[in-house]
Amino acid sequence: MREKRQQIVSTTTLRNAYDRRSFTIGAIQGGIGLLLAGRLAYLSIAENEKYQTESESNRVNLSLIAPRRGWILDRNGAPLASNRADFRVDVIPERLVDRETTIDQLGELLELEPARINEIKGALERSRGFKPVEVAAGLDYEKFAAVSVRLPDMQGVVTQRGFSRFYPTGPAVGHLIGYVGPASAEEYERERNPLLIAPGFKIGKDGLEKQFEQTLRGVPGARRVEVTASGRIIRDLETREDRQGNAVRLTIDGPLQDYAARRLGLESGSVVVMDCNTGELLCMASMPSFDPNSFSDGIGAVEYKMLRENERVPLRNKVLKGLYPPGSTVKPMVGMALMEQGIDPEETVYCGGGLRVGNRVFRCWNRAGHGAVDLAKGIAQSCDVYFYAMAQRVGMDPIAAMARRCGMGQEFQLPVTSQFYGTVPDPEWKRQKYGRDWQAFDTVNATIGQGYMLASPLQLAIMASRLATGQNVFPRLTLEAGSPSFERMGFPANNVGYVRQAMSDVVNGPGTAGRARLPFDDILMAGKTGTAQVVSLDKSDGRSGPWRYRDHGLFIFFAPYDNPRYARAVVIEHGGGSGAAYPIARDVMTFMFDPQQGLERLRTLETEWGGTAQQRLDKSYAQYAAAAGAIVRPPPRRDEEIFDRVEAEARAAAAQTEEIANAPISPRTNPDAIREPNVAPTTAPTGEGGGQ
Amino acid sequence: MNSIIPAPIARQPWQMLIPLFLLVGFGAAVLYSAAGGSMEPFAASHLMRFALFMVMAAVIASLPRDLVKLLAYPGYIAVLVLLIAVEAIGAMGGGSQRWLNLGPIVLQPSELMKPAIVLVLAKFFSALPFGLIPTWRALIPAVGMIGLPMSLVLMQPDLGTALAIGFGGAVVMFLAGLPLRWFVTGGAMGLVAAPLAFFFVLKEYQQRRVTTFLDPESDPLGAGYHITQSKIAIGSGGAFGKGFNNGSQSHLNYLPEPHTDFVFATMAEEWGFVGGLFVLIIFGIILRWGMRVARRAQDRFSRLLAAGMTFTIFFYVAINLMMVMGFAPIVGIPLPFMSHGGSSMMTNMICIGTLMMVNRWNREAPRLGLK
């Protein structure tokens, strides 16, 4: 074979082979050329549409413009939450080239505190992808411009003009309105709405902001821009304006809410005011509180620490989530139950300072005794013995039933994130919960609002309105046209009149709260004081010693007494007795009828306390920030966790009085006296968390 | 011949040169657009380089055949030494490198190897007695001469250039009349070796290029990004393109390397199918001219040389276009006469110069009889 081949090889054969083969190569080249031309035609003509779309989606970037949030208005149309135009700076983690340097540079330009810079760095570490991280909002133009001119050197930094939420009365509405913040990863997972990760977009995190999220949110605008592959914007193509969210109009009276919150002063407590004819809630103040304005870019570590370490739990909404033994404030309600059971209110019981039931003696707060006591005197002077004796006669069940009818243990249709409904104990309840039988002392405890009985300030206000009007009043928080008609409670008119008169005597007659009288001759207020003990007598005298052992001070009232218009409840946690509650009640009521006079009184007090609630909060924050420096433990990542924790602690706090419910409670002597302004309030943290 | 035009000008191969000038001019226009509507930094230097290398091509075209034959082996060895020098410097510098800094010029010896391998093999096979063509004495030296520079270039690592050298050499061997079965066996062995090479020879980034070529969507933001964006650029151009200076893919940086490897995509986005066809046709004209020069050549050496040079240009064009249109993995081969870059311009102009030289030889010694 090889021999043969070698012989054949010659110039001619090689030449022929060359011609054949070069033709082959030429043909291959031509073939590939045709193939490429075909491919080119396929891509650019047949598939043109597809690739044109892809090229457009490369080129054009659609970004959402966060819609302006709807306002939250008070009953007169004044804003409780509005929007403020501001300048903001965000960073987009994925586009940052050098995180540390860029953030440090920004910190310098914007004069951020070291703690804040650390927080941003932490947030960046946890963030993923294109979700922007807020560096600062609410900037003035100078700082904004300083960052803007340096943008070309700072990849991943975005400056924006936008709107931020503004709460004109700050802490006064913190618990009620809640606050807004950037959506968390969970919230995004749940809703899958790209708006949630648009820069500058905030959603309601608590309170009404959360409840009315969809109403307030609005419709986002959109901006189409031409961008380079690295995300740099070349030019604007088209912009669609956003549509502002709808306003929510509340029944709250803004100035009253603010006044009540400020009047609470250094105390920890709440004021609920409602229109007892319509059920409209005019005021739901709970203090101490947080400033929702400073929460909008997330709860800062220093702030969280400050709020957390305050034993007066500024994060808890005490109107809805504070449960207290109602103390003597239940007496008018018990009286109503007694009358319904056929007891003649004129019938007297002799009070000699105590009542013997079986082999036990139950003491009246007035160890000297009240003498002959009928129902009116029992309410006005809060005689315990009268109620011990009468309750023994009718038993617990009708009293518990009346308590429930008056709103205790009830949950209300309100746009709130959560409300506690407390406890109305009765024999059945005790058997189920503790497996023990109802004792005589249980009834005794319950009739003076102690023992297992727990109610929230909202429920107490509702109880006051139902007793005052004899109507089954339900609370409302959003303003609606027309006034609702409530069913009658089924109280005989005489009984209602009797209770009104007795409650008026508390204030205007020979009662326990003479100092609660309004500074007006023509408007008379009716009320009932209450002092709720949280620990046994031997542990604390209820007025001094550790704050959390002191008595709660309560006051429920309505005015005018003969034609009730407003009903309310004031509860001061560990205020040392009802004496802490009714001066506040009186001033709030004064403010309603004569704002000028009310404000003068408040100003005097605020000078004593060291500024308004907002000022004191700011001062305390400054102290904390200075003390903490840059090393503060960050708050829980999810806002939900913060409030779950607060809620859990609130439940635990409410259980505090259970300890002493196992035995008869001896009322303190002279519980309704006004507490001396003796103990300097602790503005500095005690380091004990949550009052547990 | 028209007497108005002087003979030295009239006798230049204008049927090739005019399309070439058009193509380079068109390339400059595309580079002008790729620079965002500016002559700097690409278009001006592109034209300057072309002018410079055109002079070089003219010088090459004037070389006598004997001198070229004489320089074949020394030239090959010189380039080989340069390749080794690059490796050595790279090894000393602690990393791979492809360039030699020779004062003002940056030289890429692997580029020079492409014409050098064609030249040396043409010389080798023209000198080899006919009787030895089907024997191992034809095969082994040729394979050695191809394999040595290929492995040096692969070590750089530069797969595209290594393949160009291999294919250039193989085509010369094929045209030299080596038995067909060797190529068949070689091809079969290549098929077997390819997967082995894929797993044991290729660097990771090269492996990734191959895998993403097979499935670009598997890595849309990584290596597949190049192929995808290039296809988007070409496909969105449509029949007549988005218009000069209006390509969004190139102007907004979606297209990687819009002035070098992906210059064809940049062009097709703005000029559409029509522009692409124009480029293809011009390459067709130039390559057809090259093959005709080869076929008309007087002797075996010239024939192999011209065909090899034509194929070298073809290889560039084919691989680059297949790459930008998603038919081949990204191997980093620029498009001749259009891409911005000195080395590839030099290689291609050496090929053009050599073809012009063979063309001159053809003209000066017309075919005698039926040889």
Task: Give the SSE layout.
The complex is a heterodimer of chains A (692) and B (371).
Chain A: H1 2-8, H2 11-46, H3 48-59, E1 60-65, E2 72-73, E3 79-91, H4 99-110, H5 114-126, E4 133-139, H6 141-150, E5 157-166, H7 174-177, E6 180-181, H8 185-191, E7 203-204, H9 207-211, H10 213-217, E8 221-227, E9 233-240, E10 248-249, H11 254-264, E11 268-275, E12 281-287, H12 301-309, H13 318-321, H14 331-340, E13 349-351, E14 354-357, E15 360-363, E16 371-373, H15 375-380, H16 384-394, H17 396-405, H18 427-434, H19 440-447, H20 457-469, H21 493-508, E17 526-532, E18 552-559, E19 566-573, H22 582-593, H23 595-609, H24 613-628, H25 639-654
Parallel strand pairs in A: 2-10
Antiparallel strand pairs in A: 1-8, 2-3, 3-4, 3-5, 6-7, 8-9, 11-12, 11-19, 13-16, 14-15, 17-18, 18-19
Helix pairs in contact in A: 4-5, 11-22, 12-24, 14-16, 14-17, 14-21, 16-19, 22-23
Chain B: H1 7-10, H2 14-34, H3 43-61, H4 65-93, E1 100-102, E2 105-107, H5 109-127, H6 136-154, H7 159-175, H8 180-200, H9 204-214, H10 224-237, H11 248-251, H12 263-296, H13 300-324, H14 342-364
Antiparallel strand pairs in B: 1-2
Helix pairs in contact in B: 2-3, 2-12, 3-14, 4-5, 4-6, 5-6, 5-7, 5-13, 5-14, 6-7, 7-13, 10-12, 12-13, 12-14, 13-14
